Amino acid sequence: MKVLVLFAHPALHKSYVNKVLIEEMNVIDGVTFHDLYELYPEFDIDVSHEQDLLSQHDCIVFHHPLFWYSTPALLKEWQDLVLQHDWAFGSKGNALKGKLFFNVVTVGGPRKAYQKGEFHNHSINELLSPLTQTAALCKMTALPPFVVHGTHAIEDKEIQQYKNQYFRLLELLATKNVDVNKVTSYKYLNDYLKELEG
Ligand SMILES: Cc1cc2nc3c(=O)[nH]c(=O)nc-3n(C[C@H](O)[C@H](O)[C@H](O)COP(=O)(O)O)c2cc1C
Asked: Whole-prediction pTM value?
């Protein structure tokens, strides 16, 4: 299985977490790392190139920091331009049909703050629903997100643990060793991986 990681971070030079998470990702067999802000700093997205890339992969990952409970602006622009009617969705839009989709998201707030009645009053899964529903409209299968919480107060050791988990996930996907039906019953992919680790 070929995995495409669409990465969106507008200020990687200021990043503490993501810059570690993405290091050497291209070394993983079957994984293509695609840095959108590096390629399109002026938002001049090459739509046909992006569509070709999508067609060549089986699993599409949106990897980004959570910005205002959503994606950085370029990833929204990417969706608006690339996911065209009768290509990605609509009666003739089958280009993405059957592919897997999930988010990898780094989040300032801790996990316990992302639930009803707590500081952010919504779960990450609820907040990402425009993206998972977009995937569904494009006939893809949405998996739960992989979430790095508490980035405001995270230690280097924890980032490394998340990175190890994330790379393991990518390797499992690339070698088709993920039980998709089982995975969809978890809230986060992190929880599935933790269980695998025992
Ligand atoms: C413009 C902006 C908006 C943000 N919005 C949120 C938010 O809605 N919820 C949250 O928990 N953190 C929010 N954050 C914190 C980022 O998610 C956090 O800084 C990022 O994931 C850390 O990753 P990095 O070290 O790679 O930059 C925001 C940060 C910025 C700069």
From this structure: 0.98
pLDDT tens digit string along 101-132? 999 999 999 999 999 999 999 999 999 999 99
Per-residue pLDDT of 21-71, as tens digits, reads 999 998 999 999 999 999 999 999 999 999 999 999 999 999 999 999 999
Report the residue among 66, 122, 146 best suited for mutation to probe ligand 1: largest number of ligand atoms under 8 A from its CB: 66
Please state, in angstroms and rounded to a whole number, the distance separating the CA atoms of residues 63 and 15: 14
Instruction: Give the whole-angstrom CA distance, residue 149 versus residue 152.
Output: 9
CATH superfamily of 3-197: Flavodoxin domain (3.40.50.360)
Q: Is the CB of 67 under 6 A from ligand 1?
A: yes
β-pairing verdict for 141-142 and 146-148: unpaired
Q: Which residue from 28, 60, 53, 25 is spatially nearest to 175, judged by alpha carbons?
A: 28
CA neighbours closer than 13 Å in the CB half-sphere of residue 132:
15
